[in-house]
Amino acid sequence: MDSWSPSLTVDDEFEKLVIRMNPPRVTVDNASSRTATLIKVDSANRRGSLLEVVQVLNDMDLIIRRAYISSDGEWFMDVFHVTDQNGNKLSEDDVAERIQQSLRPRARSFHSLRRSVGVQAANEHTTIELTGRDRPGLLSEVFAVLADLKCNVVAAEVWTHNSRMASVVYITDDETGLPIDDPDRLAKIKRLLLYVLKGDRDKRSANTAVSVGSTNTQRRLHQMMYADRDYDMDSGSTNDRSKPLVTVENFADKGYTVVNLSCPDRPKLLFDTVCTLTDMQYVVFHATVIAEGPVAYQEYYIRHVDGCPISSEAEQQRVILCLEAAIRRRTSEVYRLKMINSFLALLCLFVYDFMFDVLDVLGLFVIQGIRLELCSEDRVGLLSDVTRIFRENGLSVTRAEVTTRGSQAVNAFYVTDSSGNQVKSETIEAVRKEIGLTILRVKDDAYSKSPPQESGRFSLGNLFRSRSEKVLYNLGLMRSCS
């Protein structure tokens, strides 16, 4: 339990005074680089400033190509080379203002990390936090319980990693559309969800707690999985070429610990690593990030919040495991690495079977779930019905993003079969027919470009064409028509 102390209040107020005297300065430079917009941030230094800036860039869905970070002493200066999702420079006028808003002092929040089911009433919704052992059909059972309890899910995000699941779900009362704040009803929701999470085997999710404060959803998911020690379990074969390479060593002359990281690049990678270092109570003093090709390189000079570098080999190993876990938690993303030039792409048209096997061995293609997008008129029980159909057809949800826009439910599910393998196209089509072909759409080239053939009709030309289209799409040489 967090305890109040006079020194904490004094330090907090002093931080606010320093920030007011030296407000953050953010400049957006579109002239210095041909390929990216430079966002420069300098301000009085305080703990967590770097994460707040990166979090804003993450929330704006910007791609960070390079970053140079320095925050030694009482001042920090950061430079980010960013583009939009399409690789273009930014044209938005409010980027600087949004970052400045994020760095303005505000009340400090405390978060307990030792909970499995938490319920928090906010101004517009009630927040439910879940962690537990992942298993096929778990998400369906969770949404079914909420539907039975007359709870409307307005948004949710679900991550799975190393057989563990973490989810943040936002609900309102079905009848009133207001947050649920009745203590007895909240206790019943927690009790029934805890029963679902524990199942027959999981004893690690036996605790319940009411969450205090609020935080960024994706940061909270990192915190929850870190608290659940998902990094403790085997995350894959040591021969896995796509596994992040993380090294940790002490720089004795300067009193820093140096963390070097390289892995296949993807969106939000910087946020995931900075978030993890911050929540592990480390301060980043200097950093360099380069992510202009298929592989991202990150170097951090860090110390613990007490000012000391990492002091033991066991602690170094823990940092390595936690960073590896942070990178792998977004397991449902399909990252297509554009590291093959167009000549090799043409070669792949003729020897695709062989090349796919080679690329898979090298870890260049990571297929970790088919993305299904659902857009429908929102109603109570919609998620329960959809995830039940998934379960009945043997689909396992590895990640989910649920949002409500007005009266429309806009949801994305990443699914595999019950063994974690890619789902057969026949199964996907059967699920779509049951839910509605116009309601549930496949956002994956393997299916959207090559509908299943009639039984007994085999066409080498069709096979070649669908596979070649997939290669070109993966390499960014062909755009989706959807």
From TrEMBL:
Pfam families the record matches: ACT
Naturally occurring in which organism (per UniProt): Vitis rotundifolia
Domain ACT: from-to ranges: 38-118, 127-204, 371-450
UniProt xrefs under Gene3D superfamilies: 3.30.70.260
Keyword Repeat (UniProt): yes
Organism domain of life: Eukaryota
Name of the protein in its database record: ACT domain-containing protein ACR
An annotated Gene Ontology molecular function: amino acid binding
Role of this protein: Binds amino acids.
Keywords assigned: Repeat
